[in-house]
Amino acid sequence: MLVLEFILGILGNGLALWIFCFHLKPWKSSTVLLFNLALADFFLNIALPFRAHYYQRRRDWIYGDVFCRISLFMLAMNRSGSILFLTTVAVDRYLRVVLPHHPFNSMSVAKAVCVTCGIWAVTISSTAHLLFKPHFIKAGNRTQCESFLICKASDSYDKLHKGVFLTSFYLALVVILFCSIRIIFKLRDRQLDKNSKIKKALHCIVAVVVLFFICFFPSNLTELMILTASFHHSLICKDYEGLEMAFFFTISLTYLNSMLDPIIYYFSSPTFRKIYQKLLMHCLRKTEKPEAKEDRTHDTGSQTLSQL
């Protein structure tokens, strides 16, 4: 599953970054937000093949302590950064539809860059702790590379960090749901559904909500259950086996966001739609050509036989 996420993620985000850099001009404030979302996904795509190999070896890390720290940092940075950038995209769409005269809508590209720098600062500061201590855990003949183990007792700092992250996630979820509901009510009350730009904003916010629930909600719900269970000191390791399986499965869903984020770009910009449609038509024509060639060969063969 991680290999598929890597292949589709690197193709989708590579194409997205290419469009952002060479085809999407001039940039707007919303473009800056989406570009940084693609950049966060790019960092995930760098670390993902090593993580896939780690799971393929039954959680045996062979790339050393330093790269273990870096890979965990990049994975966590993508997770936190994607949540923050998706939330900002939702707020941006909400203001453009519900409050079209808000000063945020006339934000310059330079100010948008400052906003994204602030988001990156928060993201890096909240995940940089992964770089400063080893995450090697010996398990028999294997060396595990994990930011935490479910059965291992966490110190107060780790619990505080997880608590802050989960709180910020659920706040982001509330913000996204609020923006979505307000946009839907705005469309219903003022009958703006015939306006193509408003409809595209609705499609974009729906894509954000669906992606948020598929990719991030399951893992954060599982982490909340683990954090709650960790306060019950009477539990033994076997009691965590179901939660452990659920955790690693839902974490793999988190990595889907790098593969699904291009859907948001599609609904956010006509340039993306045109290029995606051109690529799709090109691929369809390529698949049709061999079939047409085969048909012509078959017809030629039939004519030859009839002449004989």
Automatic annotation (TrEMBL):
Q: Which GO terms describe its molecular function?
A: G protein-coupled receptor activity
* Example of a GO cellular component annotation carried by this entry: plasma membrane
Tell me where the transmembrane regions lie.
6-24, 31-50, 70-91, 164-185, 205-226, 246-268
Q: Tell me which Gene3D superfamilies the record gives.
A: Rhodopsin 7-helix transmembrane proteins
Establish whether keyword Secreted is in the entry.
no
Membrane-related topology note: Multi-pass membrane protein
Sequence ranges assigned to domain G-protein coupled receptors family 1 profile in this UniProt record = 12-265
Q: Where is this protein found?
A: Membrane
Q: Which UniProt keyword terms apply here?
A: G-protein coupled receptor, Membrane, Receptor, Transducer, Transmembrane, Transmembrane helix
Q: Which Pfam families does the UniProt entry name for this protein? A: 7tm_1 (PF00001)
**InterPro entries, per the entry:** GPCR_Rhodpsn, GPCR_Rhodpsn_7TM, HCARs
Q: Which PANTHER family match?
A: HYDROXYCARBOXYLIC ACID RECEPTOR 2
Q: What family is this?
A: Belongs to the G-protein coupled receptor 1 family.
Name the UniProt record assigns to this protein: Hydroxycarboxylic acid receptor 2-like
